[in-house]
User: Which sequence fits this backbone?
């Protein structure tokens, strides 16, 4: 089932709409046309009370003030590009360095701040909507006009499937992601100590102190980055490993073992389990990498939903992506989208109650 209402207005008067995808099991995902933001993700509990498993805000102005990308679609390039510089077909491009001397999450006016044109694809079982955005040639410094499409489908097996499609009239970069902050105990829970995480990755990309990959594809063995078995995150977060210090926690890209460039069906990449409730999140994707971000910098946002103030390490992000700074690391899988080519990627978040 789908229901719609006006969530609020932008300063210029345009309406921000919220569309709710509701399945027969009582899962409800609320999505804004602003930034394609997942604002609420309600799941049923045995006591018949619902729990909201993502962080978010209650007002449009709070989303406009937010610097943490709560729940948003990120583009054109999720994560960082060193000094905002890259070269395509021998042309040099310079993006704005909007964080620590680097470009982060597509620039100051990224896809997370745009109004996407939303249409309903399926109203009944497996409710589905399509969001469309035209990003003009030169938008935030990126070449070519990009036509982006994101399809959100909530299936009756409790999976939110996110399909990313795009094409451009010039060769450009495209690396979209979804920046939901999950706390499977509920957005108001405050910390992630009761969560265990598994990531099927034997390697990760270590960074410098500004979160830019050094270029090394390092083994996870004997490091806090070895999450190949379900692992509580608390020990890793407290570790004195240099990479954990650099990220102020986990804020790194894992190289997913089962990635293949020619794959169009998502593979199992990661899982989180909240040990008190037993609730699980399974992440499947077609993308080569995934940033696990333990919300290390949360704490200065506007007050969250229902008056909850969010704190550092209060949530987990599973940002499927091309590796950070891939345009400057030729041995990383390429985020180049050639003129006339069609981009297609899928990421699924399945909730197991
Ligand atoms: C990503 C980055 C983090 C941080 C958040 C947004 O996860 O890797 O360093 O910038 O986005 O706050």
Assistant:
């Amino acid at each position: 089932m789908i229901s719609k209402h006006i969530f609020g207005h932008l300063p210029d008067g345009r309406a921000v709409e919220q569309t709710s995808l509701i399945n027969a099991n009582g899962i409800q995902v609320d999505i804004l046309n602003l930034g394609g933001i997942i604002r609420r993700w309600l799941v049923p509990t045995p006591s018949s009370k619902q729990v909201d498993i993502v962080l978010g805000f209650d007002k449009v102005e709070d989303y406009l003030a937010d610097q943490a990308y709560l729940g948003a679609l990120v583009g054109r390039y999720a994560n960082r590009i060193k000094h905002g510089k890259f070269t395509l077909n021998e042309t040099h491009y310079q993006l704005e360095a909007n964080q620590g001397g680097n470009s982060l999450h597509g620039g100051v006016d990224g896809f997370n701040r745009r109004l996407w044109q939303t249409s309903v694809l399926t109203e009944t079982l497996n409710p589905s909507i399509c969001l469309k955005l035209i990003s003009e040639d030169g938008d935030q410094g990126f070449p070519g006009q990009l036509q982006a499409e994101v399809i959100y489908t909530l299936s009756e097996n409790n999976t939110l499937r996110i399909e990313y499609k795009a094409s451009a009239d010039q060769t450009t970069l495209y690396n979209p992601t979804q920046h939901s902050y999950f706390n499977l105990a509920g957005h108001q829970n405050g910390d992630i100590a009761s969560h265990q995480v598994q990531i099927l990755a034997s390697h990760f990309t270590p960074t410098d102190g500004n979160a830019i990959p050094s270029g090394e594809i390092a083994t996870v063995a004997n490091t806090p980055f070895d999450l190949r078995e379900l692992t509580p995150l608390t020990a890793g977060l407290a570790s004195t490993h240099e990479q954990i210090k650099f990220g102020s926690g986990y804020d790194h890209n894992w190289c997913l073992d089962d990635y293949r460039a020619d794959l169009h069906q998502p593979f199992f990449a990661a899982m989180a389990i909240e040990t008190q409730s037993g609730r699980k999140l399974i992440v499947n994707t077609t993308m080569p990498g995934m940033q696990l971000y333990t919300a290390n910098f949360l704490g200065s946002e506007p007050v969250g939903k229902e008056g909850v103030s969010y704190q550092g390490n209060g949530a987990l992000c599973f940002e499927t992506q091309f590796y950070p700074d891939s345009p400057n690391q030729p041995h990383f899988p390429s985020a180049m989208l050639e003129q006339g080519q069609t981009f297609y990627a899928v990421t699924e978040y399945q909730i197991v109650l």
